[in-house]
């Protein structure tokens, strides 16, 4: 992962999942609110989505593990060089370990939603474990590096820890839209920050290098981290507004009579509350 591409690839993975989760959980929430007329949110449909999501996790994890092991400067499955008596590319092994746990999370997703042998909540626990392992790996990832390198990875650690804690809370508070969207925001933040790290540490096309000891750079990146997080809320807001509008417009076209009935029911409830 010690390259621009090595940070851009996991960044793209996390951006994809953060965006997908923001769409999925918003869609699930809106359909649940309109369950009497919304045919998008069937239980079987969302279970199929969970299975597909598990398959995507496994495929992305295998892609990441393969890339970490078999790039030209990779370890090629060699952990220790017995001739020269030293470890072989431990950084790549750390990254492969991170990918492995997300792949394991995908496997558990598939088992939970295709069999009745495992509780569905186990998928949340395994995803939380994957984020905790990722955070653990990155916390000890920057030993002996320059100040700026350590700092931007510590900011990454914050976003990882936030996602891990939120998924762990989802294990106890199921179908909580606030926790689910907060988790999506931290995963989006994690993905975008991976890209930021790539541009800072490995400027593409021979761009100017960042001064690793300049405190001003650290102050700017602190602000930049907040801007990244603000942008995740913009994405969540756009997704929520678009999905709400889309489902509402579909329902009006498909079930106009039911929509009028629902509106009358809502008015009656509001009148009762006022009384």
Automatic annotation (TrEMBL):
**Origin superkingdom:** Eukaryota
Topology within the bilayer:
Multi-pass membrane protein
Q: Name one GO cellular component term.
A: membrane
Q: In the record, which residues are listed under signal peptide?
A: none
Bilayer-crossing regions: 6-27, 99-118, 150-173, 185-203, 218-243
Family matches, as Pfam families: DUF716
What keywords are annotated for this sequence in UniProt? Membrane, Transmembrane, Transmembrane helix
Localization annotation:
Membrane
| Family that this chain belongs to | Belongs to the TMEM45 family.
Q: What is this protein called?
A: Transmembrane protein 45A
